[in-house]
From TrEMBL:
GO BP term (any one): ribosome biogenesis
Species annotation: Gracilariopsis chorda
Location of this chain's protein in the cell: Nucleus
Membrane-spanning ranges: none
Primary subcellular site in the record, as a coarse category: nucleus
InterPro entries the record matches: Ribosom_reg
Protein name as catalogued: Ribosome biogenesis regulatory protein
Residue ranges, compositional bias (Basic and acidic residues): 139-155
The organism's place on the tree of life at top rank: Eukaryota
Function statement: Involved in ribosomal large subunit assembly.
Region span, Disordered: 131-174
Pfam families noted in UniProt: RRS1
Keyword Transcription: no
One GO term describing the cellular component: nucleus
């Protein structure tokens, strides 16, 4: 803790780097502000410092004034079906090697992707199944099975996105929604009209000019700017002093009303 004692009427909160002047002034308020800032700076420099690799630092004490949160506490992410199953069965996630041994050739090949162990292109010879006619093509059958597995995985992914959307109260990433929508009939049924509009709005602003100089396609909706524009406070001390005083008074009145 700091050994510095602030003047009477000035309360310091070094954890939040804040000074509160509770004295009543009838004259120039700049004098009160100057004394409060000087007391705050003096108290900070009286704190014990520590030498580190990045230089000298001063650990601040715990704040004495609890600031309210601007936004609500985020919800916990909903577990996927696999995560729930792994948690119930006690399955630990481990990193698998990228290469696996192919017993047929005795060489290491990729686990997934092109020329992987399970790739159709790697199968030079496939045993003919009994009962199949002469026109049976085992290579075409394997390609068909692979496409079916891909479609099943896409449906499961869309279901996971729907579950995540439901747990978050209906909010969904528009780009993620657009990605699901172009994957097939199941995705298109899932994506609402609002999701397409949100995805289009994101894409329209994705270029360097934020879509201002982009060529529009036929019947493309007009780009509408969304969100609240940021407002920057003035950097001129005297010019913005009146507004800053008024804003501070409103905040103080709101806090005092909530405490009573």
């Amino acid at each position: 803790m700091s050994g510095f004692e602030a003047p009477t009427g000035i309360e310091l909160d070094l954890g939040n780097l804040t000074a509160f002047d509770k004295r009543i002034y009838e004259g120039d308020e700049m004098e009160s502000t100057t004394q409060a800032v000087q007391a705050l700076v003096t108290a900070i420099f009286s704190l014990p410092a520590e030498n580190t690799e990045d230089g000298k630092i001063v650990p601040l004490p715990r704040p004495s004034f609890a600031l309210p949160r601007e936004k609500p506490i985020p919800r916990e992410r909903e577990l996927t079906k696999w995560e729930k199953f792994a948690k119930e069965k006690g399955i630990q996630k481990r990193k698998r090697d990228r290469l696996v041994l192919d017993e047929a050739t005795g060489e290491y090949v990729a686990r997934y992707g092109r020329r992987s162990k399970n790739s159709v292109a790697q199968d030079v010879i496939i045993p003919h199944k009994e009962g199949m006619g002469d026109d049976y093509d085992p290579f075409a059958e394997k390609r068909k099975e692979k496409k079916q597995r891909i479609q099943e995985n896409k449906k499961k992914q869309a279901a996971n996105i729907r579950a995540g959307q439901k747990s978050r109260g209906g909010n969904i990433n528009p780009i993620q929604a657009l990605d699901v929508a172009k994957r097939g009939p199941s995705g298109k049924k899932f994506l609402p009209k609002r999701g397409l509009k949100d995805a289009l709005a994101v894409v329209q602003r994705s270029t360097a000019s934020a879509g201002k100089f982009d060529k529009k396609v036929q019947n493309e909706p007009k780009q509408v700017s969304r969100g609240v524009k940021r407002k920057f406070e003035t950097v001129v001390p005297r010019a913005g002093l009146g507004k800053e005083k008024e804003r501070s008074q409103k905040i103080a009145e709101r806090v005092l009303l909530q405490n009573h």
